[in-house]
Amino acid sequence: MPAATDFHVNGPTTIKWGAWLANGNAPANNTLVELGKTDNEDLIRITVRDHYRTFTRNDLGDMIAESVTAGSTATIDMTLVSWNQDELLKLLRKVRQGLVTTQQAEDEGKYATVGGSTVTGGARLVKLYIEPTTVGETVYEFGAVMLSAGPEYIDFGNTLKRIALSFTSVPVGNLSVFSTTAAKTSGA
């Protein structure tokens, strides 16, 4: 069996985002804008979970007799060390209120609209593009995600402030993948 020989160092990573369009389509990559950057202290974590429905039989008690797959979900956790405040406010306005109009300062503290659908017509969905600094490392594109936690403001005080966000992939329309990947081909 061959030994592991590859070392993967992404370096600081750029996060781009785009709001789903009113017609229910994901935004094109050329319309995505930079939300922020990570640093080398706390990069991005992507966790994929396969969902299963389990079934038991009387003769086996509570032990699993059969398991059927029921899809997959990716969770994308990130801590940004620098971010565009205007873009953060636009993101919050989209995911909480379903609006893509110009952001306002108070959007940062507004409640999400009660009863607002998230997935239907892309009302509160965004697209994420995760681009590492290092050529040859993997670029991730998540076509449809919802904000599932955050923003979490970290390290108030006499240090560099950070902001944490967590997104969850959702299946929309005919999307059969939650992420596409490619190798980064050129520098910054």
Could you please describe the fold and organization of this structure?
By secondary structure, the chain is mainly beta. The protein has one helix and nine strands. Strands 1, 2, 3, 4, 5, 6, 7, 8 and 9 form a nine-stranded antiparallel beta sheet that branches. A hairpin with a 5-residue loop joins strand 6 and strand 7.
Task: Give a short synopsis of this structure.
The chain is mainly beta and 188 residues long.
Set out the fold topology.
Elements lengths: L12 E7 L13 E5 L7 E11 L10 E15 L1 E2 L1 H13 L28 E7 L5 E17 L7 E8 L10 E4 L5
Antiparallel strand pairs: 1-2, 1-6, 2-5, 3-4, 4-8, 6-7, 7-8, 7-9
Characteristics:
single chain; 188 residues; mainly beta; 9-stranded antiparallel sheet; globular
Approximately how much beta-strand content do the residues carry? Answer: 35-45%
Question: What distance lies between the first and last C-alpha atoms, to the nearest angstrom?
Answer: 37 Å
- Rounded mean pLDDT is 81
Order of helical and strand elements = EEEEEHEEEE
Q: What fraction, in percent, of the residue positions are helical?
A: under 10%
Rg, nearest Å = 19 Å
SS field, number of helical segments:
1
Low-confidence stretches: none
What is the total tally of β strands? 9
Shape: globular
Helix-strand category: mainly beta
Largest sheet: 9 strands, antiparallel
